[in-house]
Design brief:
By secondary structure, the chain is of the alpha/beta class. It folds into 2 domains: 265 residues, 2-Layer Sandwich (Nucleotidyltransferase, domain 5); 183 residues, Nucleotidyltransferase, domain 5. It is built from 16 helices and 24 strands. The strands form 7 sheets. Strands 1, 2, 3, 5, 13, 14 and 15 form a 7-stranded mixed sheet that branches. A 7-stranded mixed sheet has the order 18-19-17-16-22-23-24, sandwiched between helices. A two-stranded antiparallel sheet has the order 4-7. Helix 11 runs antiparallel to helix 12 and helix 12 crosses helix 13. It is globular. The termini are far apart. The model has no long low-confidence stretch (mean pLDDT 94).
């Protein structure tokens, strides 16, 4: 069977065409997205995602032979539709921080972080869909009143494919209005005055590998796919990557993309009142506690361009510390923060500054690894699985190895989100579990980077700068 998986990410759409017998990638395609906004805004037209998906599929040259398809997409985005299924406005993306004040207000409305964590698995931050919806109701109430459907990015694309609304538990668990532990929408949240959202405007939540329907004629013509093929429900990007890895409990994963994420599979739901971990569900029937940083590869690339360096042109950071919060930050939760450079001297080199950027990102990711160990339990001997666009970078590998003290495994397939979507498509068409397909494909196999001792001195230096800045903010 020929499967297609789409990864509709922040910056673009990747299409993989896969042979279900062995997971062999037959063809790839990619098309960019347009992202706009000033200051904390990050917006995209959902119709651009659709056009990019069509372009990426066309590039593969295999679209006419695909027999099942699924979409995995960036989490949390708010897509507001009219009665005809058309977007009423550009979608607010996960890294749009304009809803930070709404997150703070909602936090108090429901009784604080502990209540939120118990009801929804997560403490609200600007990224969560519920905060973006509250912001829309506050800033554009007329537009919110016109809404006839509220969707996540992958839900919008899947619904357009098969003309039927469906969502999945993995992506729904990042909204802030769905409970992973109880597998239901949370009326206590939907009925808050700042939210006031009818469940009728939302999708029915299933598993990502469940069939959503068949590809409708209009979508088939626009995407160049055969009409009537199976469309799976799909899921969020992190859940799809976990599905492709066939992830077992106790193994930490770091994904380096526009954002940086840290997650692990778990057999029990997680509720972190401190808000470091979001207690997500996975795309099947288990859980995926996750920490996210806003600043990862893009922060490194921005500093590298300012310094006139290649991204791997680094040297030991010495005294300099960089907290690269160019877009605010989520771990730690500092939505209004900006970047800070401390410890500069006359002899500080550009290469040292760039290494300090890597260190600053890695320190935030390490916060997530340590919280995962505390709440979900990590295997002390398990390597860290490193995935995403930054995973092949020598500086990323060296920094994460030194900060975590773990060996690294680099899966051979770089496009794990799209591959996970293809596994969900195969599961929907065949009835096999997606995890069984993924394990047969051996997508998690790859090169290994051996462990090194943790750089405790460097971590302590970064901690001191963080503490000093926190004290200044409080003052």
């Amino acid at each position: 069977m020929i499967l297609a998986g789409l990864d509709s990410s922040t910056q673009g759409t990747t299409a993989l065409v896969v042979d279900d017998a062995d997971g062999r990638v037959l063809a790839r395609g990619r098309a960019p997205h347009r992202v706009g906004g000033v200051r904390g805004e990050r917006r995209s037209d959902p119709r651009d995602w659709w056009a990019a998906g069509a372009a990426a599929l066309a590039q593969t040259g295999w679209a006419s032979r695909v027999q099942a398809i699924a979409v995995a997409a960036q989490q949390h985005g708010l897509v507001v539709l009219d009665g005809e299924g058309e977007p009423l406005a550009p979608a607010s993306l996960w890294n749009d921080t304009t809803s930070a004040p709404d997150a703070l207000a909602l936090l108090e409305d429901l009784g604080g972080p502990g209540v939120w964590a118990q009801l929804t698995g997560s403490v609200p931050v600007a990224a969560n869909t519920v905060c973006k919806w509250a912001h829309l109701r506050r800033s554009a109430p007329d537009l919110a009143r016109r809404a006839r459907a509220v969707r996540l990015p992958h839900e919008y694309l899947t619904e357009r494919m098969c003309a039927a609304a469906s969502g999945d538990r993995g992506d729904a668990s990042g909204t802030g209005w769905w409970s992973p532990g109880e597998e239901r929408y949370v009326p206590e949240v939907l009925q808050l005055a700042r939210v006031a959202l009818s469940e009728q405007l939302l999708t029915q939540v299933r598993r990502g590998q469940d069939p959503a329907g068949e590809l409708c004629d209009r979508a088939a013509a626009e995407l160049g796919l055969p009409a009537g093929i199976v469309v799976a429900c799909g899921t969020g990007d992190n859940m799809a990557a976990a599905a492709a890895l066939g992830l077992q409990p106790g193994t930490p994963v770091v994904s380096l993309g526009t954002s940086g994420t840290v997650y692990a599979a778990s057999t029990t739901a997680t509720a972190d009142a401190r808000g470091v971990l979001a207690g997500f569900a996975d795309a099947a029937s288990a859980y995926l506690p996750l920490a996210c940083t806003l600043n990862a590869t893009l922060a490194v690339d921005r500093f590298a361009s300012w310094l006139g360096l290649d991204r791997d042109d680094v040297s030991a950071a010495g005294d300099v510390v960089v907290l690269p919060y160019l877009e605010g930050e989520r771990t730690p939760n500092l939505p209004n923060a900006s970047a800070t450079i401390a410890g500069l001297r006359h002899d500080t080199s550009p290469q040292q500054i760039l290494q300090a950027v890597y260190d600053g990102v890695a320190a935030s990711l390490l916060d997530g690894v340590e919280r995962l160990d505390a709440l979900a339990g990590l295997d002390a001997d398990s390597p860290l699985v490193l995935i995403g666009g930054g995973a092949r970078g020598a500086a990323w590998q060296a920094t994460l190895s030194a900060f975590t003290g773990r060996a690294l495994v680099l899966p051979r397939e770089p496009e794990l989100v799209a591959l996970g979507a293809a596994a969900l498509a195969g599961a929907a068409a065949s009835g096999q579990p997606a995890a069984a397909l993924a394990r047969r494909w051996r997508a998690a196999a790859g090169a290994r980077v051996e462990s090194r001792p943790r750089d405790e001195e460097r971590l302590a230096r970064i901690a001191r700068v963080r503490h000093a800045l926190a004290a200044l903010d409080e003052g």
